[in-house]
Design goal:
alpha/beta, binds ligand PTJ, five-stranded parallel sheet, 10 helices, two-stranded antiparallel sheet, globular
Length: about 240
């Protein structure tokens, strides 16, 4: 019998949420593959937040608190894994949340995602009336008052070319991705290599802590952060099975 506080219970809980999400139409069946990819990386990190991820989360909190129009982009997996915590983050930041998914049926799934967030009394943008340039997938279709006009976009659980297109379009991006080598992780302004279920509550905590700081402090802290260097450190940690000092 696995003890209650064992990480296995946590991964089984996440699997269950993803499976139920597929049944309710929030998660695409491919979301189960994404979950498996994430789990593999999480094992290698010892299923806990690495010290490098704390630095990444702190830099992200600074960037989000400095943003004029932060937007949190949500897909199927993220919705079932941590909608409640995402709502907390959005409220602290005064950020908009927008549904943006890769797999069909796009419009239907975005609507179901928005409905799920209604359980937490949060309106989510899901109608698209603008386009991100230099992007061919359906992810290019966004809301004008959301991702299209954001200055900082938080992207979770996505290995694709949207981050690069958003950066070319002048946005700053924050990615949460357990794979430091994914296209999204490699291209983002700040990459948090951690499980969303751990990273979002920590980001909420850091935003609460840092919102007392002034702009100068936030800018100075963000300036010190070097994404590529930290990404390489966490990659080294993964290669050594989570044990690097
Ligand atoms: O809802 P949709 O249609 O947008 O589809 C969502 C998926 C997740 C299928 C899609 O956006 C996707 O891009 O999936 P990928 O290509 O498998 O990329 C997902 C990335 O997230 C991979 O690099 C995984 O390692 C990582 N990942 C998986 N689970 C977690 C995670 N990162 C953080 N926390 C997790 N729980």
């Amino acid at each position: 019998m696995i003890p209650k506080n064992h990480p296995r219970h946590e991964s089984l809980r996440q699997r269950h949420l993803i499976e139920e999400g597929v049944k309710s139409g929030i998660v695409t069946p491919t979301g189960m593959i994404a979950q498996g990819r994430g789990e593999a990386f999480d094992y290698l990190l010892g299923e806990k937040t690495a010290p490098e991820a704390i630095l990444e989360i702190e830099a992200s909190a600074c960037m989000l608190l400095l943003a004029k129009k932060p937007v949190i982009s949500v897909n199927g997996n993220v919705t079932v894994l941590c909608a409640k915590e995402i709502v907390q983050l959005a409220k602290i930041l005064g950020a908009k949340i927008e549904a943006n998914v890769f797999y069909a049926p796009i419009e239907k799934r975005k609507k179901v995602i928005a409905k799920e967030f209604k359980k937490y009394k949060m309106e989510v943008l899901y109608k698209s009336n603008a386009t991100i340039p230099n992007l061919t997938s359906d992810r290019r279709n966004v809301s004008r008052e959301g991702i299209f006009s954001a200055d900082v976009v938080l992207i979770m659980l996505e290995d694709g070319d949207r981050t690069e297109a958003l950066m070319k379009f002048g946005k700053k991006t924050i990615a949460i991705d357990l794979n430091p080598k994914s296209r999204t992780a490699q291209k983002a302004s700040v990459t948090i290599v951690d499980n969303v279920v751990r990273a979002i509550p920590l980001l909420v905590q850091k935003c609460i802590e840092f919102r007392k700081k002034d702009e100068k402090w936030l800018k100075a802290k963000l300036k010190k952060f070097k994404n590529k260097i930290i990404l390489n450190k966490i990659l080294q940690r993964i290669r050594q099975g989570g044990t690097v000092k």
